[in-house]
Design brief:
114 residues; mainly beta; seven-stranded mixed sheet; four-stranded antiparallel sheet
Length: 114
């Protein structure tokens, strides 16, 4: 299993930006499915963005504002979040799926408020 540690969360005003980072305990391969999910209070965890084999997909609510990327040489997955809105407030979780396992990070809080 891959151990994942997120960082980069925090509080920001609407319209601001944050960059989340996810450090993996071992090498990430392009064949893995790597992604970011989020869970707001009282809501189910939802997919935000995924990347696999160089292909990315985004939730409609974040398209054009968020960008997922990975640096497999550094075992890192990133989520650049721009034009943040109050409805983006949630705990953000890094996720990696391999052929053998599914791994989650502990989550990082993102709060968007004026």
């Amino acid at each position: 299993q891959v151990q994942l540690v997120e960082s980069g969360g925090g509080s920001v005003q609407p319209g601001g930006s944050l960059r989340l980072s996810c450090a993996a305990s071992r090498r990430l391969f392009n064949t893995y499915v790597m992604g970011w999910y989020r869970q707001a209070p009282g809501k189910q965890r939802e997919l935000v963005a995924v990347i696999s084999g160089g292909t990315t997909n985004y939730a409609n609510s974040v398209k054009g504002r968020f960008t997922i990327s990975s640096d497999n040489t550094k075992n890192m997955v990133y989520l650049q979040m721009n034009s943040l809105k109050p409805e983006d407030t949630a705990v953000y979780y890094c996720h990696v799926r391999t052929q053998e396992s599914i791994s989650w990070g502990q989550g990082t809080q993102v709060t968007v408020s004026s």
